[in-house]
Predict the structure.
Amino acid sequence: MPPLPILLLIVVLAGCGGKSNSKTGNEAQLASAHQLEARGETRSAIIALKNLIQQAPADAEARLALGRLYLDTGDLPSADKELRRALALGKHAAQVMPWLGKAMLLQGQFLPMLEQIEADAQQPALMALRGHALLGLQRNDEAARLFEQILVRHPGHPAALTGQARMALQSGNPAAALALTERALGQSPANVDAWRLKGDLLRLQQRNPEALAAYRQALTLHPSLVQAHVDMASLHIQAAQFDQARAELALARRAAPGSLMLIYTQALLDFRANKLSAARDQLQLVLRAAPEHAPSHLLMGVILRRLGAPQQAAQHLRTFLAANPAQAYASKLLASVLMNTGDAQGALTLLQPLLAQHAQDVEMLALAGEVHLRLRHFEQAARYFEQASALAPDTPMLRTATAMSHLGLGDNSRAVAELEQAATLDEKSSRTGTLLVLTHLRNRHYDKALEAVQRMAAHQADNPMVHNLKGGVLLLQRDLAGARASFEQALKFDPVFLPALDNLTQLDLQEKNPEQARKRLENALAQEQGNTGVMAALASLAATRKQPAQALSWLERAQQAHPEDVDASLRLAGFYVRNDAAPKALLLLQKLAPTQPSHLPLQMQLAELQARHGKLEDALATWSKVAASHPNSAGTQLRLAELRTTSGDLDGARQAIDKALLLAPAMPQAQVAMVRLLIRQQAWQPAVQFARQLQATGQQGKPDAAQALGYKLEAEVLQAQQQSAPALVLYHKAYALQPGAPMLIPLYSALVQAGKRQQAHQHMQQWLAAHENDRGTRLFYANSLLAEKDFPASSAQFERLLQHSPDQPLLLNNLAWLYQQQQDGRALATAERAHQLAPRNAVVLDTLGWILAEQGKLEQAQSLLRQAAALAPHNTSIRDHLTLVQGKTVRRANDG
């Protein structure tokens, strides 16, 4: 599960600022947030987006970006909320649902996700999310069929392959899981989830150096991914390299101090250091924010058992097992707890189904023997003890049931592996654990939650995190004064505790008292001069107050105080770019880049600025350095090839594509890039040879996607040479090998271009008749019919699409336009419905405005068209419509 800021409660306080009057300003702020994200400054990017949304609460693009960032950092409730707002504000579902589906999946909302996201063969990412949800519901047969369906239509789809890999791991075949993961990376070398899964699988095989390299590659590809640092820290904990683990957690803490997995891994480190109470308290923070986080429930069960709270331990272990049925380690631990609390029959019921599958598990056999002994089943007890002794004659049969030697199965294998390496469990007891805050918050018992936090504070009176948590509970009770007092109490123990400072700043802004926030932050800075986090907070506050000079002053001060701090420099560069001082940003990064040759966000931002200022050669040189420092990244080579193609260096582009193919021979993007580059060079024969090599891959056995792609690419070569007839033969072959949109659409287009419209429509109609839910292909067909001006047929297809998606504004918009062309009285109502769903979409505004104009409602039309032109100033069609309506309005006034 990705990182999750603990202070998600404060999100409800956002949105109190005024609206920006400048769309250009909003776009600049959005671009700046994207730049911060690209540089790995996730926290700053979130702050920037929240500031933008305060100014423009109806900005769907900003809501989508903020939702994605919250998802990236693991703040799942906030991600869910912002993504749903983006949908409500008119953002197309195709852009939002993959992210919203992932947020629901990570929150354990498997059934709601399946209900909300329909199966769509043309959206494999959504289908894969459904597959992973089915895995979460233990409906593995259905998941397996779905992943197979995805791979038939979309060969090499990484999310489907990683789903199959997880299933292979669940079935006890880690080698197959690793092979599937490698295949996913071969198809998509920049897939961060696959790199992390590879690291996990290598770690399970004790191949730690390789696992560490996989996690580092994930971090290289996605610098804002705090989880990669946490993964590496977990690996170090597993190897008892605690100093290295602390160093990685420190790096993660700089980027996302409230990250869920950061706090979880700190709890694991505390556990290994036998700081059980501290570990428990950290886990309470995690579970308060993410009640479904199964690894935390497992670790909490271990800790509470050792702290002498078996009933609470059993509750957490049952929660874990509800998400991971029959997981061996947790089952043994819960059975031990049940047995020691007098429920030996419950322990036997739990263990009995597992014994056949785990016949070589010494601990499970010994535990089963003890359970039978307590139930006075003497013969059964003797048999299990004898089996255990035969397997491990030198091992005490009744050693602690939770000391494990086998890795866990399922999606939470990483947590299980960490525990297996970390835990040395015994029967020692400690003070009674305090009631979990999560238990009461989940049941909306806020008063009891507050009592639990107060008990925590009694044991950890000087822990600022506890007081900050108390403030969050008070916020839920709408006790703003009490929350403020708790946040201020946190600062008494740590004057520069940034979460509490941020919370108090948000309260001050809500109460329209920004000056108080400024003074508090400056007092904190006086306590720890040079703290770049506090200076960044001061800069953010100044920007919120529309004081760019003060914001710049703080950013420059932070950068000057710590010139070696890359993040401080990138924040300053981002400010320069947002405020039309990009040359200063370029100069700043040019000075810093030589000292940070392997800092990917810095080098990428520098290359972007170089290209923006027309310094294409410099941009190419920078990308070349990135490629040199990340030599195993096929994706980097493809981006370098793209730049070289733009600059006209086709030979250099060819070299980069060759390197990408060497790194990832089966990478479809690289294969397509190669053939299309050869087409551009008019190197017809090499292009054909390359395509035919792909065709040959499937001829020794079952035809595969590479063979179909080979036929398609050869057809493209022929089409480029105006050889339509042989191209059509190859498109037909490709489609026969891989029926579906990837091959059907180019076949359809080739048939239309060849004047064989009837055949094209026949193929399309046959496919859609057999695949009713293939809405992506149906949309293509509807638009194709529209382009052919077959308005009745196009209308029929759009109407079919709306039966499945009645609230899609662009579908409604197109249908409204079609109705208007046919003088259908439903045009205006349909256009108005689209406008209600997407009031700031320029195309929707244009359609409604033009329909009103044709109906003689010129004043309304002119107002809508002006809005559309402001939103899309470069759209000539909208400008032409506005000009025509303005002319009609003038003539009407003159005639009047």
Remarks:
- Confidence is low (pLDDT under 50) at residues 1-22, 393-440.
- The radius of gyration is 30 Å.
